[in-house]
Amino acid sequence: MQHRALGPGRVLNGMSVDVEEWFQVGAFERVIDKADWNGIASRVADNTATVLDLFAETETRATFFTLGWVAARHPALIRRIVAEGHEIASHGWDHQRVFTMDAAAFRADLARARVAIEDAAGVAITGYRAPSFSIDARTPWAHVVLAEEGYRYSSSAAPIRHDHYGWRDAPRYAFRPVADAALVELPVTVALVAGRRLATGGGFFRMLPAAITDFAVHQVNAQAQPAIFYFHPWEVDPAQPRVAHAPLRSRVRHYSRLGAMAEKLRGLLGRHAWGRIDALVVNA
Question: Whole-model pTM?
Answer without folding.
Answer: 0.95
